[in-house]
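User: I've been trying to design a sequence by hand for this structure and keep getting stuck. Would you show me what you'd pick, starting by listing the structure so we're on the same page?

Assistant: Good idea, let's start from the same input. This is the structure you sent:
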């Protein structure tokens, strides 16, 4: 009886393993995605966290390679306004989410007509895949010095951009 039960359990596990989605074996984040930053609701200890700005989004094309840890690299998209951001952006799969960690210079805005103050900063952005194909997460930046010294948190999301619809009618 026990041997029969063991065989049934092993067969069930084997069948279930075959039903695991492909993303569990190797994550995918390939194609065009609109990355939205929810800047209007950012928070943190930095002066920058209290300055209002609108939410913003841009479309990027990602390509994933998995020769070692899986990496999603931006291969097409707008050039950032801040020239200190490392290019191209690369996101590494940590087993549950895509992580983008980088050092750069924060350009602290202090009002109209006041020169920006540049300061070293470290950012980590996390994007967790959702069942509907989107990714959601948080972007954290630690600003090391200057008038914007402190931390800024901002919610982020990535939405797949589908191919354009075909032509209507017949030819």
């Amino acid at each position: 009886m026990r041997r029969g039960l063991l065989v049934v359990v092993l067969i069930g596990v084997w069948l279930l393993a075959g039903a695991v989605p492909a993303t569990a074996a190797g994550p995918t984040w390939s194609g065009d995605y609109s990355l939205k930053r929810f800047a209007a609701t950012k928070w943190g200890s930095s002066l920058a966290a209290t300055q209002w700005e609108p939410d913003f989004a841009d479309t990027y094309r990602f390509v994933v390679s998995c020769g070692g840890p899986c990496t999603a690299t931006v291969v097409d998209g707008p050039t950032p306004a801040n020239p200190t951001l490392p290019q191209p952006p690369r996101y590494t799969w940590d087993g549950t989410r895509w992580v983008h960690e980088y050092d750069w210079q924060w350009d602290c805005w202090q009002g109209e007509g006041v020169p920006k103050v540049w300061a070293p900063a470290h950012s980590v952005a996390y994007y967790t895949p959702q069942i509907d194909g989107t990714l959601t997460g948080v972007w954290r930046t630690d600003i090391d010095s200057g008038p914007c010294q402190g931390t800024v948190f901002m919610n982020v999301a990535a939405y797949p951009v589908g191919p354009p619809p075909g032509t209507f009618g017949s030819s």
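That's my pick for every position. To get oriented when you compare it with your attempt: The longest helix spans residues 2-18. Residues 85 and 122 are 11 Å apart (CA to CA).
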